[in-house]
Amino acid sequence: MKRSDLDCLLRAAVLDGGVPGVVAGATDRSGLVYLGAFGSAAAGTQQPMRPETVFRLASMTKLVTSIAVLQLAAEGRVDVDAPFGRCLPEYRQPPVLRSFDFAQRRYETQPARRDVTVRDLLTHTAGYGTWFLNPELRVLAGPKPEYYNAPFLICEPGSRFQYGTSTDVVGQLVPALSGLRLDEYFAQRILTPLGMRDTAYVAPADTTRLAAVHVRAPTGFVAQPPEPPEAPRGGAGLFGTVADYLALLRMLLNGGRAAGRQVLDADAVAALTSNQIGDLMAVRQTTAAPERTSDFAFMDGTQKFGFGVMIETHARQSGRAAGSYAWAGIFNTFFWVDPAAGIAAVVCMQLSPFCTPASLAVCDAFEAELYRQLGFTA
After folding, report:
1. Residues of the chain scoring pLDDT < 70
2. Active-site position among 163, 185, 245, 371
3. Is residue 40 within 8 Å of residue 49, measured between CB atoms?
4. Which of 59, 178, 324, 359 is catalytic?
5. Cα(171)–Cα(66) distance, integer angstroms
């Protein structure tokens, strides 16, 4: 593969001022096929992006949580079709929003027609929203977001795809069923077996390895002060490198197997990466907080959803085939896996808001050139 062309397009994205810095990589079922780093990890410093730079993975944590829950399901410790309250007795299911008065900040609710299930939570069909996508929750949001005890569900369980805090809620199962803290379980059952030494819920001790989150100012990108650390949760919080995350995706490409051991049951991998929402569609999510995220423009209403990943029903013009699956993190980190091509890729930037046209353009260009280099497109 002629890596210089991939290097050039990533370097150009930085030089053109679209993004402050980027690390991108790809793997096949055997190992890395590309890893490149360009630009600045912290604007205003001499800290460059490097292959070993650590990123805030944000919602890319959700895939790890989904894997953990499916490990427990494969061991018979939880039934994904069981009501969540039966699996976690302390769970109190919120009512469903009926009406909301924005002027008075008052709302009416009604009991849900049925129980939320583990499947609902893994597929974002439970009805949980989030403050940056749902204006009702944004109005009620305090200084610290609420991840577990929502005042209401946005919609009836099972009625539509609604991205939100479902993975935070379902992540509570992992310590309850395993007896380990979430970070301990991840380390013992997923991260260490895959050799993901640079992935954890804490930032690296060497602060020069951590990329800063940037915002655009009139004079260019400005690095933001780090946000205070949070307790481990299922929906976000992991720090990690591109190479580490590619190891996770390579395990999925290989049917759950890595380094001679079965990290995730092959049937669980098949379930995770296939449509689990029936006739529903994973519709585009629209923003309620433009300073935090733009609309999720990578969703066009043709996608399905598995257990923690969006699934393409059509081939994308940039390269990946139907049946590919993907997700992202709110600081503009992205991944996809294409089982038909045997390829997975990760593109990591650190800037806000999420889903800017420039960050999506970097991903699309990298994908198109990668597929061209590997001979999948003319």
Report:
1. 1, 378
2. 163
3. yes
4. 59
5. 8
